[in-house]
Design brief:
heterodimer, A: 289 residues, mainly alpha, Formate dehydrogenase/DMSO reductase fold, globular, disordered N terminus, B: 299 residues, alpha+beta, Alpha-Beta Plaits, 2 domains, four-stranded mixed β-sheet, two-stranded antiparallel ribbon, 10 strands, 26% helix
């Protein structure tokens, strides 16, 4: 028995170091969906813009990639449910207080309208690419909730980067100019937004530099920078460089979603991320007066 | 701020649920758990499990005082915490009695602004006519959103085999739904008090109308403070806190985090208007980015 029970490595008191929050119960389907949903949404936009400007090969690539994303995403989401056979319950209500409810309608509207009209579907592309950030922020997990200002930009820019990368890897280099520019621009903005998020989070953002989230974060940054560099420098002339650069950038964006996902679990696991900011918010010290 | 100007606008007026029930509205019911008279008997845990037919989820020896339940979850809707401290029970008590053993029966807080209810995409979580928060087991599809949304870590998914499935099967299907305290909704409907309060031998768990419980808690706190109890404080009694006050609140003898409770819980949807606005700006930026990629030509 000690004077007070403290969490490891701090003076903060806790209940046997046990978590205050529950870790999410989401399975690997969810980080993959964070990736495929963003890819589908931004590819929709890329395809429509390419069609409007008369670049038919790029328009076709954007459409097919977004269709693939729209087809895979619901399968991932339904598979993650504890009761997959009840997935239709997602459409019992529409609740603006639940980003998952809003997102269920966005995703189904994006997928359903693709069959009818590409233009209508593209209207849901941008919301589809960023709402998942709102979904994660709208929880009690400190590393997600406190990132609410940056996360939509991280995910939106990441979606642009992955859509551009996928199209640049598929389309012939002479037709892929806009895709390369979108990929490189998205990667640049996304990386800056991620760094800004890590800086502003301070101690709450520690998970991004520790454990699995830290490894994914490092891998994401290395792959993203390398992929974007290849696309920016050599992909205009070499098909091989376009495929390698696009592949690296896609891997980087997938790793980024995994990093954000895993960071949430690590943030929930350690009570200090709950207690320290809340006590500070109240102007209370961490140890008994 | 836009149309979602206040917390009440987005999560419902604190007492707005009452309007939706019309004539069927009942006074708001809840718990006042006075931990200063808890004796750690765990009768509440047992009564809850028995009444609500909560399955057994394994026995673990934790070595953490008398606590082998450890946390609230899908299969534990009451949890008695045990804290051993080298600290006097009363201020200024220096006659060698410097040990105290704190016990506290934790439960779902039935928040005025409940994040779990707000984020639930199916409407499985709802506000009852008694002002309590309940999961409808026939609606819940196990999406799991409420689990990380709860600022107290109360809700969890049940991973035990689902009713009717063969546990010896090749791959028994798990229940997969989310479970938590219902404040014994079925007993309330029948005019009975919840099982835990009924079983509590010391009246540490007091059940009743929230307004009346708050008044009772204020009196009790004043008495304990007058007697010089160390660290006595009410937790969740204040209707102006980050969740609009708890329907089930507590009298604690130390800071909340000592019992594994968040010191200043906040309903996450309080910041949702800001989050939706940020998402809209980011979505606009994405469209602008795509257009910019074509600014240098369509090839």
């Amino acid at each position: 028995m000690s004077e007070s029970i403290t969490a490891l490595g701090t003076d903060m008191r806790s209940y046997y170091g046990r978590p205050i929050l529950k870790e999410p119960v989401w399975q690997p389907e969810i980080p993959w969906y964070l990736f495929t949903g963003g890819l589908a949404g931004a590819s929709s936009l890329l395809g429509l813009a390419a069609r409007a400007t008369g670049n038919r090969p790029l328009a076709k690539a954007g459409l097919y990639i977004s269709m693939a994303g729209d087809a895979v995403s619901p399968v991932l989401l339904v598979s993650d449910l504890g009761r997959p056979e009840r997935f239709l319950n997602m459409f019992r209500v529409f609740k603006v207080t639940s980003p998952m409810s809003v997102g269920s309608w966005i995703l189904s509207a994006s997928g359903a309208s693709k069959v009818l009209a590409e233009t209508v579907s593209a209207a849901f592309g941008a919301p589809l690419s960023v709402y998942t950030a709102t979904l994660l922020s709208d929880t009690a997990i400190p590393v997600w909730h406190e990132a609410r200002r940056e996360l939509p930009f991280v995910f939106g820019a990441g979606a642009a980067a992955s859509a551009g990368a996928a199209a640049a890897a598929i389309v012939a280099p002479e037709d892929a100019g806009p895709a390369r520019r979108l990929a490189v621009g998205g990667a640049a903005v996304g990386t800056v937004a991620m760094l800004a998020m890590e800086a502003r989070l301070g101690m709450v953002g520690e998970p991004y530099h520790q454990g699995e989230a830290g490894i994914y974060n490092l891998a994401a940054k290395l792959c993203t920078v390398a992929g974007a560099a290849l696309l920016a420098t050599s992909a205009k002339r070499s098909r091989l460089a376009a495929i390698a650069g696009g592949g690296l950038l896609l891997a980087g964006e997938a790793a980024l979603r995994w990093s954000v996902f895993k960071a949430g679990f690590q943030s929930a696991r350690d009570p200090k991320y709950v207690v320290e900011p809340q006590r500070r918010r109240k102007g209370w010290g961490l140890t008994p007066a | 701020m836009s149309e979602f100007a206040t917390l009440a606008d987005i999560t419902g007026e604190p007492d707005g649920w009452a309007d939706t029930y019309g004539d069927e509205t009942k006074p708001r019911l809840g718990f006042f758990t006075d931990t200063s008279i808890c004796i750690g008997c765990k009768a509440c845990e047992v009564a809850c499990k028995e009444w609500n037919v909560i399955p057994e989820d394994g026995l673990v020896w934790t070595g953490e005082s008398y606590d082998n339940t450890s946390t609230l979850g899908a299969n534990s809707w009451r949890h008695v915490a045990f804290v051993e401290q080298r600290k006097p029970l009363h201020d200024g008590n220096h006659d060698g009695d410097t040990l105290r053993w704190l016990m506290s029966s934790d439960v779902c807080k039935h928040c005025t602004h409940a994040a779990c209810l707000d984020v639930c995409p199916t409407g499985a979580l709802f506000r009852t006519e008694f002002g309590t928060v309940v999961v409808q087991e026939d609606i819940c599809n196990g999406c799991g959103y409420c689990v990380p949304a709860c600022p107290f870590g109360v809700l969890d998914k049940r991973h035990l085999p689902r009713p009717g499935s063969d546990p010896a099967g090749v791959r028994p299907q798990e229940d997969g739904r989310v479970w938590k305290c219902t404040l014994c909704y079925d007993r309330l409907k029948g005019g009975h008090e919840p099982a835990c309060a009924k079983a509590c031998p010391t009246k540490s768990i007091q059940f009743g109308e929230v307004d009346e419980l708050r008044a009772r808690a204020d009196e009790r706190l004043a008495k304990l403070q007058q007697q010089g109890w160390n660290g006595a404080q009410l937790y969740g009694r204040d209707p102006d806190d980050g969740v609009g006050g708890f329907g089930a609140f507590f009298l604690l003898l130390d800071e909340p985090e000592v019992y594994g409770l968040p010191p200043d819980p906040l309903v996450t949807t309080k910041n949702l208007p800001e989050m939706w606005r940020t998402a809209a700006v980011a979505a606009g930026a994405l469209v602008a980015g795509v257009l910019a990629a074509f600014a240098g030509g369509s090839r």
